[in-house]
Amino acid sequence: MSLDQESVQTTPASQTNERIGQSRRSDRRRRRSDAPFFIVMGGISATFILLIVLLLIADLRFTSVADFRAALAKPEIIAAMKLTITSCSVAAILSLWVAVPLGYLLSRYRFPLRWLVDTIVDIPIVLPPLVLGLSLLILFHQKIGDWQLETFLGDLGFPVTYRWPAVVLAQFSVACAFAVRTMRVTFDQIDPRTEDVARTLGCTRGQAFLTVTLPQARRGMIAATTIAWARSLGEFGPILVFAGATRMRTEVLSTTVFLELSVGELDSAVAVSLLMVAMAIVVLLILRILGTGLNA
Predict the structure, then answer these.
(1) Shortest CA distance to 162 belongs to which of 141, 132, 131?
(2) pLDDT exceeding 90 applies to what percent of the chain?
(3) Which residues lie across from 143 on neighbouring strands?
(4) How far is CA 150 from the centre of its chain?
(5) Where are the beta strands (DSSP E) in the chain?
(6) Chain centre distance of CA 17
(7) Mean pLDDT of the 117-141 span
(8) Nearest C-alpha neighbor of 140 from the set 154, 126, 123, 130
């Protein structure tokens, strides 16, 4: 084989190696240039995560297992825990019941005064919690002539104010707004053409909604329920004003923390706070596993 023939065969191989080397050097330069970006973004993100972790560690270091067991053995805290689970579940179900149709209508249709309805839905989100509780109290005790809502419901055998229904209503008033926002975004992401196709095949509008749209909104419904439940768990201001904090009657865990602090039982207050954190984590994990899977 002559020298010219060897050079013809080796040239393409050397060019390929050179290109691979250039590509690797380019990748290294790109990774080095990306490093500051990820350091800044990761550092800012880690600040919030670190804050939450430090808060939990501080609570865990403050209390002990004995304090935790002693707090959970109190009858009033057990009653508050039962009422909390029940009221949060009822408020979340009611929130989803309202959020599905309202979120769907706001997402799909342009009707008169839609902007006003959209704004009203957001009011509980921006309203101070104490103001919302005060507004509920005024609503139920406002006299219109000789008629009063609280008296009317009391005559029917279902008084609300300063009783457990007031706890549910106070939680629902705030949690429902978050559920509606979640369901509206969910319906925005579902292609309306699937409903149109179902209607061309003979479905009524209701059938198309129930058989085509609603199954696709399953994950959004679970997310809305989760958000409503978690929001209800942390509600305090409206409950304190509208339902009060009567032990063994209208006391929920959020008001238990306040009551324990007011009598100087800091250990019990911290223990109940950690219990609320544990309940929130368990519910979020269960609903996440049921609805979206751990990797979603």
Answers:
(1) 141
(2) 30
(3) 148
(4) 31
(5) 143-144, 147-148
(6) 54
(7) 90
(8) 154
Check: CB of residue 208 under 8 Å from CB of residue 199: yes
- 251 torsion bin: left (phi>0), alpha (psi -120 to 50), beta (else): beta
Selection from 278, 249, 183 nearest residue 221 by Cα: 183
For residues 3 and 158, give the distance between their C-alpha atoms in angstroms, rounded to a whole number: 104
d(Cα 214, Cα 183) in Å, to the nearest integer? 11
Q: 294: pLDDT confidence band, cut at 50, 70 and 90?
A: very low
Assigned token pair, 51 = 């804050």
Take residue 223 and report the two structure tokens written for it.
């997310």
Phi-psi group of 162: left, alpha or beta (phi > 0 → left; psi -120 to 50 → alpha; rest → beta): left
Query: How many angstroms separate the CA atoms of 21 and 27, rounded?
Result: 10
What does residue 163 show for φ and ψ, rounded to 5 degrees? Answer: -135, 175
| Beta pairing partners, 144 | 147
First to last CA, the chain: 62
- Cα 42–chain centre separation: 24
Among 95, 136, 129, 56, CA closest to 229: 95
Q: What are phi and psi of 143, to 5 degrees?
A: -95, 130
Residue indicated by tokens 């590509």: 23
The per-residue pLDDT for 136 is 92
Q: Which residues are CB-contacts of 103 (< 8 A; sequence separation ≥ 6)?
A: 179, 180, 181, 182, 183, 184, 186, 187, 224
d(CA 278, CA 64): 15
Q: Which of left, alpha, beta for 157 (phi over 0: left; psi -120 to 50: alpha)?
A: left
